[in-house]
């Protein structure tokens, strides 16, 4: 009897946590201003998959690290995935994807891509800050990601936001066997920094 009550009680809090997390994942479609340009931001939809893959192709020299099926599966997992898109004049120009792992209170950035002609305009920075704010609201402890060892611009961006190198995955990328650098941001430390980038 006591075991049943304990399971019921824990289940009650677990459902409450999941509901709270789901509420925090809600993103209303709206207009944002980034470096004096107006963009539309919203949650990625299944119909966006072809455009998401098109951006990947433009960024990764004709390759798509994720295929249609994998991307579709990610977008359908609304409980623990968040994919955001940025549009400029109805053209999808940037997106970010992340997984929220409840077990270890970690948010893992699975994908971040900005169309080449829209790079260096603050879009990646903006998307990262949105994800960091979401993770903080649901009281997660850290954000992790992998980045290509040759992608120095992205590494610089992540370092600016407080990410630190935590390791390396040898021959991680299938297309060219390039190494991946593991990076992590301890969200709990952010409040103690003199400049927390408005997060």
From TrEMBL:
The keyword Transmembrane helix does not apply. It is an enzyme of class 2 (transferase). InterPro entries: AcTrfase_RimI/Ard1 (IPR006464), Acyl_CoA_acyltransferase (IPR016181), GNAT_dom (IPR000182). Residues 39-188 form the N-acetyltransferase domain. Its EC number is 2.3.1.266. GO terms for cellular component: ribosome. Keywords: Acyltransferase, Ribonucleoprotein, Ribosomal protein, Transferase. GO terms for molecular function: protein-N-terminal-alanine acetyltransferase activity. It comes from the Bacteria. The keyword Ribosomal protein applies. This is Ribosomal protein S18-alanine N-acetyltransferase.
């Amino acid at each position: 009897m006591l075991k049943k009550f304990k399971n019921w009680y824990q289940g009650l809090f677990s459902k409450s946590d999941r509901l709270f997390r789901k509420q925090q994942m809600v993103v209303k479609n709206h207009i944002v201003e980034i470096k004096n340009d107006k963009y539309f931001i919203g949650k990625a939809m299944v119909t966006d998959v072809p455009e998401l893959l098109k951006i990947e192709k433009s960024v990764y020299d004709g390759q798509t690290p994720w295929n249609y099926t994998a991307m579709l599966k990610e977008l359908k997992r609304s409980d623990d995935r968040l994919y955001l898109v940025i549009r400029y004049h109805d053209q999808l120009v940037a997106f970010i994807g992340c997984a929220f792992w409840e077990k270890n209170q970690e948010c893992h950035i699975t994908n971040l891509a900005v169309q080449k002609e829209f790079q260096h305009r603050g879009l990646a920075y903006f998307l990262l800050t949105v994800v960091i704010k979401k993770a903080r609201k649901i009281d997660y402890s850290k954000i992790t990601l992998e980045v290509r060892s040759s992608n120095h611009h992205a590494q610089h961006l992540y370092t600016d936001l407080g990410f630190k190198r935590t390791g390396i995955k040898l021959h991680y990328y299938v297309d060219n066997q390039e190494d991946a650098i593991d990076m992590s941001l301890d969200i709990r430390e952010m409040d103690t920094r003199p400049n927390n980038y408005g997060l």
